[in-house]
């Protein structure tokens, strides 16, 4: 039930155009291979199906772990993460000078938990943008 078949893995990669669906990092320039991520983790009832998988970069997926959401820092409320199967990236985030700026609470908690704007990641993103690789 939890193993991602090779055909499903290929589908997830192709659907995402070989980019992390959370930070948009292209697989072609990543040090580690992107991997299918259970948007709703298996331990929370998520299925291993195309509708519950997103392509995630190695770093982001490790930080996300089995979390389906996080506390919104401004209110303390539990907020579900941005879900690329249900939401549009541009409605949750904006890319500004290499920084992924969250636009709504779901985006904010995703940026925080996945550490999308750590200094090293922003520096990397800026270099990739300058080289027209991002």
* Mean pLDDT over all positions: 94
Structure class: alpha+beta
Query: What integer value in Å does the Rg equal?
Result: 14 Å
Residue share in helices?
A: 25-40%
How can the largest sheet be summarized? 2 strands, antiparallel
Task: List strands and helices in order, with pairings.
Layout: H1 6-15, E1 35-38, E2 53-56, H2 58-64, E3 69-71, E4 78-80, H3 89-92, E5 93-96, E6 99-102, H4 105-114, H5 119-130
Antiparallel strand pairs: 1-2, 3-4, 5-6
Considering the chains and any ligands shown, give keywords for the structure.
134 residues, alpha+beta, two-stranded antiparallel sheet
Please, could you describe this protein's structure?
- The chain is of the alpha+beta class.
- It contains five helices and six strands, in the order H-E-E-H-E-E-H-E-E-H-H.
- It has helices spanning about 5-15, 60-65, 90, 105-115, 120-130, and strands spanning about 35-40, 55, 70, 80, 95, 100.
- Strands 1-2 form a two-stranded antiparallel ribbon. The protein has a two-stranded antiparallel sheet with strand order 3-4.
- The relative contact order is 0.16.
